[in-house]
Write a structure and sequence with these properties.
The chain is mainly α and 94 residues long. The protein contains five helices and no strands.
């Protein structure tokens, strides 16, 4: 099932939002091309990395990172790590 179809199926369940569905695809299903565009740490890290003036919207972030496909899951992990460096903390949700 394609990622967007899986996210649509998961978010049909009451209480499961897009962020939760993305985390499920990333960590439980180990999908290779999932960028957690709704994650605040990813938005902040991407803003810094890409030199943006403000945090990108999920749609903007998705558009800005299309060329990272099919490795956006790795990019998510790297952006969490970069966010941790920016905040002087460990930020990888493992």
């Amino acid at each position: 099932m394609p990622n967007e179809d899986a996210i649509k199926t998961l978010t049909a369940v009451t209480g499961i939002g897009r962020w939760t569905a993305e985390m499920y695809l990333l960590f439980s299903l180990k999908r290779a091309d999932v960028l957690a565009v709704d994650d605040l740490a990813i938005k902040v890290a991407a803003m810094e990395l890409l030199g943006l003036a403000e945090r990108p919207t999920p749609k903007q972030l998705n558009n800005l990172t299309q060329h990272w496909s099919p490795y956006r899951s790795a990019a998510s992990l790297l952006l969490w790590s970069y966010y941790g460096l920016l905040r002087n903390k460990t930020a990888v949700p493992l």
